[in-house]
Design a protein that fits this description.
Elements lengths: L2 E8 L6 E8 L10 E7 L6 E4 L1 H10 L2 E2 L1 H10 L1 H12 L5 H29 L3 H4 L8 H8 L1
Parallel strand pairs: 1-5
Antiparallel strand pairs: 1-2, 2-3, 3-4
Length: about 150
């Protein structure tokens, strides 16, 4: 039974929200799935992803193939890098402690870059309603007296 890691769409029209699921390739996109391993919201900047890293890694080791978008998400969250490091441990290139140290260093650097991107977006965002001054009220009675 070929298995894919793919997105399952939810949300309303033009407001997508996705579940990251493990599903048989013959199942419909929003249909039956084996296991839900996370969520993906592309509307936030940067896109918010909640992912169970261990479940995703287990399914990759079992042979599940991610779709292109899910592959990018797994790369963004470091699952593919962790799989790469564990492969090196299996080949005897370095021990597991060194692999976890490399991954934790990468993860901390990645978190800093994500926070910086969020802050830059927040600063660059136009004023909007929150930062705009309150609208000026014009007294109609004063306008009428000035005209009359």
């Amino acid at each position: 039974m070929p298995v894919k890691i793919r997105l399952q769409r939810h949300g309303s029209k033009k407001r997508p929200f996705y579940f990251i699921v493990i599903a048989d390739i013959r199942a419909p996109r929003d249909g039956k799935f084996i296991q839900k391993i996370g969520t993906y919201n592309p509307l936030t900047v940067p896109a918010s992803v909640q992912l169970d890293r261990q479940k995703a890694l287990d399914w990759l080791h079992k042979g599940a193939q991610p779709t292109d978008t899910v592959r990018r998400i797994l790369s963004y969250k470091g699952v593919l890098y962790l799989k790469h490091l564990l492969r090196g441990v299996g080949l005897g290139l370095f021990d597991e402690a060194a692999a976890m140290e490399k991954f934790s260093k990468w993860h901390s650097d990645h978190e800093l870059s994500v926070k910086k991107r969020q802050e830059d977006h927040r600063k660059a965002r136009p004023g909007g309603r929150r930062n705009a001054p309150p609208p000026r009220r014009v007294e109609r009675r004063q306008e009428n007296e000035a005209q009359g």
